[in-house]
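Here is one chain, start to finish.
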Amino acid sequence: MRSKSKDLNNNDSAKKISLGGVIKKNENIKDTIEKAASELTLVNEVLNQDNVPAQVMKQALIQNEDVEQKVAKAADDLNVVNVKLAEEMAERIIIESELADTKTDLAEARDDLSEALLKTEEAQQMALQDTLTGLQNRVSFEQGLDHGLTQAKRHGWKLAILFIDLDKFKSINDFYGHDLGDQVLQMVANRLKSSVRSEDLVSRWGGDEFACLLFKVKQEADVIRLAEKIINQIAEPCEFNGTSFSIRASIGIAIYPKDGESEDILFKNADTAMYKAKETKKRVALY
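Its structure:
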């Protein structure tokens, strides 16, 4: 595309030079006609005089013929100039049309690139998002945890992982069907997002399991209170298509750096704490 535009620009410069030559030729013809007109005026003055000597009359007639030849030649030259000018203008119109097409091609190329970038961004977003709940998926959550651990080590912060499991969720799918089960998962996702701060991460880990990552934790007691709040919010009665019931959940907690300094260990310990939580009345347990 760039090469085509360059060629067109070069052609356009060549046409400007050629057109300039045509205009200069036209000016020369104009000068010739003006001189011929002046000479013709002098000849007419001589011919209109009385008692003009024969020799002078003869020279005036010769000069008159010369002037007529100059005018005839100027007329021919002018015709050639007009033809050339018409050709140049026609070629200029073609060049302008090609330039317009080139601009259109460039605009379309930019639009195609913008659309491709948008689709790429959407694809990347979908690759990091759980399609059912809209929460971050496992890959995205692990990326967030990796970044969070780096920041926590640098600034001396604490982090907390909450591993959440819905109790007896399989029976909901078996008894009411997967459509209602999906609605339950979406409801839980919304209640989880409303329970934590905007800077914290919430993820659907898989199936009926969820995970929360809390940044800049100050006190373990604050994490426990938040976990109990989440348990109570999830357990609030819900109704789907005329069917009312309550969901129970269990939450295991692992805190960095006390319960582990790597992703794998923190997840393992949070999972262990979650199974321990299932045996408690509050359904919440620290590792």
